[in-house]
Amino acid sequence: MTRFLVVVPPLTGHVNPAAGIAAELAARGHEVAWTGTESVLRPLLGPGARVFGTGTRAFRAQGGHGLAALRSLWEGFIVPYARFTAKPLDTAVREYRPEVLLVDQHTPAGALVAHRHGLPWASFAPGAMELGRPYRALPQVEAWMTGLLRGLWERARLPEAEYVDPRFSPALVLATTGPALTGPVLTDGGAPPVHHAMVGPVIAARPPDPAFPWERLLPGRQRVLVTMGTLAGELGADFLARAVRAPELCGEEVQPVFAAPRALLPELPPHAVAVDRVPVLELMARGELDAVLCHGGMNTVGEALAHGLPLVTAPIRHDQPFVAAQVAAAGVGLQVPFARVTPERLAAGLRTVLETTAYRDRAVQVGRELLAGGGAVAAADRLEALG
Fold first, then answer.
1. d(CA 124, CA 379)
2. CA angle 126-58-145, nearest 5°?
3. Nearest to 277 by CA among 210, 222, 216
4. CA 272, 275, 279, 283: dihedral to nearest 10 degrees?
5. Is 158 exposed, middle or buried (0-12, 13-18, 19+ CB in 10 A)?
6. Contact, 370 vs 183, CB < 8 A?
7. Main-chain dihedrals φ then ψ at residue 352, nearest 5 degrees
8. Residue 133, pLDDT above cutoff 80
9. For residue 12, which of 258, 237, 292, 278 has the smallest C-alpha distance?
10. Are 298 and 323 in contact (CB under 8 A)?
């Protein structure tokens, strides 16, 4: 038995796939504990999970597009969260005495603590942004990001001569994706390093949602899930208004299911379904969906393809434009501009992926390729080798 410690940020899209890997490790008899914001982790992991809380504080809201969004992410969340959690993480390691750490790339403090204690650690990449060098054409941006990470290293008082990029474990990088969703955009056209394991989407059971109105799913309709992720917030309100109109233009034979707070949505047609939280995997597994309209987040895209569903993506920021570009390049969906797309163009995109057999056929094929990465089982195999 090995004691694993999972270090994750308070972001649902990062916790869910890590939870699938942790469940596989636990099923093999290993001991798994978590560190992070307990108020976020507990509802996602359940009452039985062992959580070493790192405390709770407000961080600057992420916003903007392009480089402005990147700056907001790093200076408003990643760096201050690393500073805030450094001491609690060190305390958790001393108390729990893990043998291996699984560290999300957005929680670099976990890598610093592992290095300080001489513990093996694996990087966890639930998104595509940090798998390669998406900003290699902007050396000033790359230098800025490196400077922030070196600043965290220095703040941790670790020897400068031993510096390693906290985003990339020299032993193992686990990515919940595959070649079809990374491609030359992120890998410089070459193969990833041997210690980078693309395990594909982690499809694991999640707590059931008894409140979802299953009875409102109308038989004989083509259904489209519309979701802009958990971080879009007010930024997604205008887009969602256009997205409400698009299925109407497709006709009553298309039923939309909106995963969004009702306050962000305008008046809906009677046949539309809208809830704050949607049991996405259950909907997909039951065969209740025919397509997905989303922001291009890696989890949503991977889960959709794993179930053979074509996509229309409207990327907002971070790794979403890279993933959306690969969705289009792989022939599994279409990409539209988030800020400018009209309801008419959205409707045309939805009709195309719903009515063109080639998109669904290709989604099924790519989904099989992604699942061949092994998911949680392959991830657990690689982690066990570090123990």
1. 10
2. 50
3. 210
4. 0
5. middle
6. no
7. -65, -50
8. no
9. 278
10. yes
Q: How far apart are CA 213 and CA 175, in angstroms?
A: 34
Residue with token string 């941006």: 141
The model's pTM is 0.89
Judge whether 301 and 307 are in contact, CB under 8 Å. no
Give 337-355 pLDDT, tens digit per residue. Answer: 988 889 999 999 999 999 9
d(CA 8, CA 108): 10
> Domains in the chain, start-ordered, CATH in brackets?
3-204+373-386 (3.40.50.2000), 214-371 (3.40.50.2000)
Whether 345 contacts 293, CB under 8 Å: no
Strand order in the sheet with 3-7: 50-53, 31-36, 3-7, 100-104, 121-125, 173-175, 196-198
206-260: per-residue pLDDT in tens?
777 778 899 999 999 999 999 887 555 556 677 888 888 888 888 889 999 998 8
pLDDT in tens, 52-66: 999 877 655 555 566
- Whether the Cβ atoms of residue 22 and residue 46 lie closer than 8 Å to each other: no
- Encoding tokens for residue 106? 């957005």
Buried residues in 177-200 as b, exposed as e (16+ CB within 10 A): bbbbbbbebbbeeeebeeebbbbb
- Going by C-alpha positions, the residue among 116, 109, 94 that lies closest to residue 3 is 94
